[in-house]
Amino acid sequence: VFLKLPSDSFKYLGWCDIGEHGIQGNQLRCPRVREGPSEEELFFRKEEHTLKKRKQVTDTEKWEKRLQENWENCAELNLSFQDLGDLYQVENFKRILRRLIRVEKLWLVDNSLTDLSAIRLPRCRELNVNKNHFTSFKQLPKIPQIQHLSLAENNITTLSGISAFRHTPLETLILKRNPCEFQERYRQLVFSSLPNLKTLDGIPKLPEDCSPPDVRLFYRMCTIL
């Protein structure tokens, strides 16, 4: 006999839709931003009874929900493994990111992200976007205060655009398992572009990393006999 858990009736609800509690967004550490199945999907699953009857939402209720979400006051947030399979889920995800004006530590691991260039995280000091689909540094969000950036297991093929972090306080950078890692004189090129960088891929800056990139990589001459 299949017995439902006491929480079964709440499994497709956002925490803002559950009454009699005062939990705000900045009190959540690993929220799920995905929405539940559509009414049609629930009907085919024979779970339409779990869907809360929709009602007309007033402007006051919308404002109260925005205040309860309170993403502006989040200092540390983990939004990894969100399984963003539909466009409306991605838009809801980005809506939350745009409100993170005070976040300092943010994890966005394994979300199939491709472009966050329209997002600005003015206070973010630590950002982990491992296991996504970024192909360029230009697709990252604006992070002027970044100190620790992890980009492992993306698809960044070249170091083009990395100089955008030259005037940031970036100290540690992880680029493991990106195609650019196999570029000739990879470490020298990264450190020459980021003179304030202290650690690359978990290895501190070494004396041989300080040598300027070989000019022959940029200027090649041919002799005509």
Automatic annotation (TrEMBL):
Q: Which InterPro entries match?
A: LRR_dom_sf
Q: Does the keyword Iron apply?
A: no
Q: Which residues form a coiled coil?
A: none
Q: Which Gene3D superfamilies match?
A: Ribonuclease Inhibitor (3.80.10.10)
Q: Name the UniProt key words of this record, in alphabetical order.
A: Leucine-rich repeat, Repeat
Tree of life domain: Eukaryota
Among SUPFAM superfamilies, the record links this protein to: L domain-like
Q: What is this protein called?
A: TILB protein
What's the name of its gene?
Answer: Lrcc6
